[in-house]
């Protein structure tokens, strides 16, 4: 769909009482990529899945980067605000409550940036293989926000210390963070899905990084 500010897919809820999901793909993905993941993690939730508006060698992303792991931080801020505006548009257009963001890689990074810059945009988040999006995070109060942060212990893209720093940043802002390093690389595993399912049901208690 293109009637709002981002090309996106929307699937209405099948079950009442579940939080709607904001699905944010990785580099080279599309609005279709994370729909199966969203259905697996929270069957019955409404799904809102936008396509990143930045192209890198023809591959959609949510913000520009200068090199692998080096972000254009001014663009991060601009795009996070654009995405937050889209979320507000979509909530009004589709009659949605507060969303839980599920982001993978580049999508997890923009979700983390949006949480830090526009915390009203999402109620909680599942950040899969996320990095610190801003070298100087803004002062923000994330009291009441909950985040599941799943990293890969042998991820060649996201260093373990970067994941730990992101968890620390969010905790220092008073977010409730559950973080775990999985025996995985950058790609997603069945354990990512099972832990995310449990966390959505508020049953998971991963060990802190």
From TrEMBL:
GO molecular function: hydrolase activity
Domain of life the protein comes from: Bacteria
Residue ranges of domain AB hydrolase-1 in the record: 82-135
Keyword Mitochondrion found: no
Keywords: Hydrolase
Keyword Acetylation included in the entry's annotation: no
UniProt xrefs under Pfam families: Abhydrolase_1 (PF00561)
Name this protein carries in UniProt: Alpha/beta hydrolase
Organism: Microvirga brassicacearum
Phylogenetic lineage: Bacteria, Pseudomonadati, Pseudomonadota, Alphaproteobacteria, Hyphomicrobiales
């Amino acid at each position: 769909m293109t009637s709002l500010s981002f090309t996106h897919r929307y699937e209405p809820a099948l079950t009442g009482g579940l939080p709607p999901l904001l699905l944010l793909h990785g580099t080279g993905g599309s609005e279709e990529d994370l729909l199966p993941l969203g259905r697996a993690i929270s069957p019955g939730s409404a799904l809102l899945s936008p396509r990143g508006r930045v192209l890198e060698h023809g591959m959609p992303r949510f913000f520009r980067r200068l090199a692998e792991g080096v972000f254009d931080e001014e663009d991060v801020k601009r795009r996070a605000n654009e995405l937050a505006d889209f979320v507000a548009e979509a909530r009004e257009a589709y009659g949605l409550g507060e969303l839980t963001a599920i982001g993978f890689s580049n999508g997890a990074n923009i979700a983390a940036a949006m949480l830090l810059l526009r915390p009203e945009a999402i109620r909680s988040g599942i950040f899969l293989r996320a990095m610190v999006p801003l070298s100087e995070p803004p002062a923000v109060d994330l009291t009441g926000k909950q985040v599941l942060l799943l990293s890969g212990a042998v991820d060649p893209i996201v260093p373990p210390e970067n994941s730990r720093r992101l968890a620390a940043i969010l905790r220092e802002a008073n977010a409730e963070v559950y973080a775990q390093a999985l025996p995985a690389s950058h790609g997603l595993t069945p354990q990512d899905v099972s832990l995310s399912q449990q966390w959505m049901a508020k049953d998971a208690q991963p060990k802190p990084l």
